[in-house]
């Protein structure tokens, strides 16, 4: 016999043994199938934790824990030349932008850990060094667009306004002025160098439906985290409420 | 007193039957995700021949508006798909079963003869012990496809962390298309596989459950 087996090993059985073996195998097969179906059904009908069955939510949270331990949160998103940016930028969500907005009266409220609130105008934000970024904006729905944004990096902003204690917290929370849309972002992603408080799109002032006067652009996350029309910024060690995470989506939602 | 051959090791039977519901769950949840941006279609000269997927298909499978649910199942079961696949490949390597699975020098020539035989064009088919040449190619290809799904999947799931993989795939959107095409590949594999299993008959099918195949007197002469 050569090295490659040309035949399969033979085995002798009497009829009884053969029947027993067959019955046992099929019983295990059917039981295993029933167990698989039961597991699927149990997960699907389990009580919900923020819009998704509890077991799935805990896997999402474990995935987040694993990935934040393994991944480098400083990794940069690929950037493109300005010429690559699309002119017609998709508008996908208007939650939280139901009311009229006026740049003159609009203020960014930054709630500090000690309870003080900074009340900043657009002029206070625009005087900080501006950064432009052209990147592939990714929607959780599965589409993407190369788009061009400008604003101040969040890390620069936090440094400039002395938010050093806040920088040590686990999460940043953002809300629209009417509090109808809100997100929570882990601090490593929030202070990644490409995350900006954005007030320009394609080199011009941000359109109203893109979050005028100030929105978040956080390239390491899906679009659901890029909150438009920021009203309040706050800091927390526990997860701030998140609009889409409450509706079944992954809280982390990052790349 | 039936003479039987040990055909499928216990481990392979478990990996095979575990993979079935896991892959099914991945395909189903993948469909829920795909629906949210269902941009793929077959066009010939500007005319749309087929849209992935028609409304009726979505409705029948209760697909619409389950994006979050789809993602959550997908990113839970990806671990099982990966671990089961890894264990299967490791087992075939360690046990030496890979010798029966990998195509060899003769396989590509013989596979053609197998196809002709299966289509009833040719009366005889080449001799084989466990898997014929076409099976060797198909069962190896499906493992390669699994690795492809893993790579393209990671490229869409974490395009910043795995940006090397994403650019290997030709970019984010290319990776998504490749991931989708691989899934169509599994469905095609599944359809042919089922047809072949039905055609080959009960003795072959039950061997995937019991592990043992009964040798009939006629085939006994051939194999010995």
Task: Give me some keywords for this one.
heterodimer; A: 255 residues; alpha+beta; Sulfite Oxidase, Chain A, domain 2; five-stranded mixed β-sheet; five-stranded antiparallel β-sheet; 13 strands; elongated; B: 224 residues; mainly alpha; Fumarate Reductase Cytochrome B subunit; two-stranded antiparallel sheet; 68% helix; 7% strand
Describe the structure.
The complex is a heterodimer of chains A (255) and B (224). Chain A has 255 residues and is an alpha+beta fold. Helices cover 27% and strands 23% of the residues of chain A. In chain A, a hairpin with a 5-residue loop joins β6 (131-138) and β7. With 224 residues, chain B is mainly alpha-helical. The longest helix of chain B has 29 residues, at 67-95. The two termini of chain B are 18 Å apart. At the A-B interface, β1, α1, β3 and α2 of A face β1, α1, α3, α8 and α9 of B. β1 of chain A pairs antiparallel with β1 of chain B, so a sheet runs across the interface.
Tell me the layout of helices and strands:
The complex is a heterodimer of chains A (about 260) and B (about 220).
Chain A: E1 10-12, H1 15-45, E2 48-49, E3 52-53, H2 54-70, E4 108-111, E5 117-120, H3 122-126, E6 131-138, E7 144-153, H4 154-160, H5 164-167, E8 171-175, E9 182-186, H6 187-190, E10 196-201, E11 204-205, E12 215-217, E13 232-236
Parallel strand pairs in A: 4-13
Antiparallel strand pairs in A: 2-3, 4-5, 6-7, 7-10, 8-9, 8-13, 10-11, 10-12
Chain B: E1 3-6, H1 10-35, E2 41-44, E3 47-51, H2 55-60, H3 67-95, H4 98-101, H5 107-118, H6 133-157, H7 163-168, H8 172-200, H9 202-210, E4 212-214, H10 217-223
């Amino acid at each position: 016999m050569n090295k490659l087996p040309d035949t399969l090993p033979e085995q002798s059985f009497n009829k009884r043994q053969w029947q027993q073996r067959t019955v046992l195998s099929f019983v295990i097969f059917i039981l295993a199938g029933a167990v698989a179906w039961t597991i699927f059904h149990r997960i699907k009908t389990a009580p919900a934790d923020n819009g998704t069955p509890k077991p799935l939510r805990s896997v999402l949270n474990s995935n987040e824990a694993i990935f934040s331990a393994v991944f480098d949160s400083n990794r940069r998103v690929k950037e493109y030349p300005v010429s690559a940016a699309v002119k017609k930028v998709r508008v996908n969500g208007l939650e939280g932008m139901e009311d009229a907005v006026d740049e003159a009266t609009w203020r960014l409220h930054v709630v500090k850990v000690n309870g003080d609130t900074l009340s900043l105008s657009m002029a206070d934000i625009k005087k900080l060094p501006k950064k432009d970024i052209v990147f592939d904006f990714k929607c959780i729905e599965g589409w993407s667009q190369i788009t061009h944004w400008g604003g101040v990096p969040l890390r620069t902003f936090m440094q400039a306004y002395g938010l050093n204690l806040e920088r040590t917290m686990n999460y940043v929370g953002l809300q629209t002025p009417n509090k109808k849309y809100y997100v929570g972002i882990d601090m490593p992603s929030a202070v990644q160098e490409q995350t900006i408080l954005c007030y320009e799109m394609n080199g011009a002032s941000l359109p109203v439906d893109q979050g005028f006067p100030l929105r978040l652009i956080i390239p390491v996350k899906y679009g659901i985290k890029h909150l438009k029309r920021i009203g309040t910024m706050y800091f927390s060690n526990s997860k701030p409420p998140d609009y889409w995470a409450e509706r079944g989506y992954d809280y982390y939602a990052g790349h | 007193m039936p003479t039987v051959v040990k055909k499928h090791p216990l481990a392979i039977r478990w990996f095979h039957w575990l993979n079935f519901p896991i892959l099914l769950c991945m395909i189903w949840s993948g469909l829920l995700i795909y629906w949210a941006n269902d941009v793929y279609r077959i066009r010939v000269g500007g005319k749309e021949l087929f849209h992935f997927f028609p409304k009726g298909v979505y409705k029948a499978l209760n697909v619409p508006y389950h994006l979050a649910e789809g993602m959550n199942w997908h990113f839970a079961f990806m671990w099982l798909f990966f671990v089961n696949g890894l264990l299967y490949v490791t087992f075939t390597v360690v046990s030496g079963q890979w010798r029966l699975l990998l195509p060899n020098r003769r396989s590509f020539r013989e596979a053609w003869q197998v196809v002709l035989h299966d289509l009833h064009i040719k009366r005889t088919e080449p001799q084989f012990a466990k898997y014929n040449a076409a099976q060797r190619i198909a069962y190896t290809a499906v493992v390669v496809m699994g690795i492809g799904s893993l790579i393209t999947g990671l490229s869409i799931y974490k395009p910043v962390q795995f940006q090397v993989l994403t650019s290997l795939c030709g970019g984010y959107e290319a990776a998504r298309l490749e991931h989708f095409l691989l899934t169509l590949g599994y469905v095609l594999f599944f359809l042919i596989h089922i047809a072949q299993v039905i055609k080959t008959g009960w003795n072959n099918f039950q061997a995937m459950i019991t592990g043992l195949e009964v040798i009939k007197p006629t085939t006994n002469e051939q194999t010995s």
